[in-house]
Amino acid sequence: MALRRGNRGAPVFDLQRRLETLGYPPGPIDGIFGPRTEAAVRAFQRDAGLVPDGIVGPRTRRALARGGAAAGGGGGDPASRPVRRERGAPPGEPRWMAIARREICTREARAGQPPNARIVEYHQSTSLRATSDRTPWCAAFVSWVLEQAGIRSTRSARAKSYLDWGHALDAPRVGAVAVFHRGPGAPTARGPGHVGFLVEERENAVLLLGGNQSNHVNIKSYAKSRLMAYRWPATSP
Predict the structure, then answer these.
(1) Distance CA 176, CA 94 (A)
(2) Strand locations in 70-166, DSSP E?
């Protein structure tokens, strides 16, 4: 049975959880298919190359299960999907966020298996050009996404290289490159860091769409106390 606005119950709850995991916030996860859930479904459908009618039928279910690839669009493995140029981001989001969202669920290969080719592809956007998906890759992911959008990245494998990229923002902005300090001690330009794209800023946390977050691309919460900077492209072609 197709799900649509007005439906309630466990299937809607499961749908909302899946949308949230894939980076399409459906509003409260309460099992009620309201306007915010419908808007999230439409945004997902647009990015998956489906008709954005807000109705979760068989094709949308299959795309949700695969993490965004439309039926017949190249299979469910994110590493095997061709990169598609963004056709329109959800309202308020810059175009590179749609590219980043399509990579959600890309993860490192299991131990003993060949490295995930998609993550190795991310690495080729940096001067390090690592060939292992176990080499830290958060900066490689950001660089790859920006380059796919036609924006020059730092082309560095260092997360904190983005402290000097573009220009600083005085206020949070969806899609901003957010740079964090990692490890003990006070934040400095040296030492370990993390980088990703801002989805939402909360009172004490930042929701970040990034790579190498628990070994895959997802949206994860990071302590705001570790935030060093929000950066924005100097130019957007």
Answers:
(1) 9
(2) none
